[in-house]
Design goal:
Elements lengths: L1 E6 L7 E7 L8 E7 L2 H4 L24 H23 L11 E10 L2 E9 L9 E13 L2 E7 L5 E8 L1 H10 L6
Antiparallel strand pairs: 1-3, 2-3, 4-5, 5-6, 6-7, 7-8
């Protein structure tokens, strides 16, 4: 809100909130005009850009994972799951079954992604499904045995933590870092 003195004769525009009369000076009557500025004078609104068709080239195709490399990764990851992750994370079912509990850890391929998965049992007898799967780590094949390593955030978004790692470095990170806990 701005305050200014304006002449009655001038008739300046604006939304008038209040008028207060001042003492006459040299025969002219002045009014104290308190005005609320309109949006057009306070802020300049940006014009909307018109919608239009734009060419968007297709995404580049991801590299194909060789079959022998797939088998090697599957074998080494399964060994990590059986020797390290299962003994560390799998516990016997709780006696008080109020919460979901972890029952299995496993790995699987989907396209050029390799996932570490956890299977949870639902404790509620009225559940829609007796169990569900959560993916907690993902290896994305780049090329020549190099991978991006990501974890699944609670919002469902994959967050890449390490880029361009070898398989050994990825498996060590999954074993040691807290991001990759089922």
């Amino acid at each position: 809100m701005s305050v200014g003195v304006h002449s009655v004769i001038s008739g300046q525009s604006g939304r008038v909130k209040a008028w207060n009369r001042l003492a006459p000076v040299d025969g002219q009557v002045f009014f104290w005009k308190i005005e609320a500025q309109s949006l057009s004078s306070d802020r300049i609104m940006a014009k909307k850009t018109p919608k239009m068709w734009v060419y968007r080239p297709p995404k580049p195709t991801p590299p194909k994972v060789p079959a022998n490399l797939k088998a090697d990764i599957q074998q080494r990851a399964d060994q990590l799951v059986e020797t390290t992750l299962k003994p560390l994370h799998l516990k016997p079912p709780p006696k008080d079954c109020r919460f979901n509990y972890l029952v299995d850890l496993y790995t699987k391929w989907y396209r050029h992604y390799f996932y570490f998965c956890a299977k949870y049992c639902v404790a509620n007898p009225n559940a829609l499904s007796p169990d569900f799967e959560i993916k907690f780590a993902r290896l994305e094949y780049l090329d020549e045995q190099r991978f991006n390593l990501a974890f699944l955030r609670h919002t469902g978004e994959w967050i890449t933590v390490h880029s361009n790692l070898s398989l050994d470095e990825c498996l060590t990170a999954i074993q040691d870092e807290p991001y990759f806990s089922p």
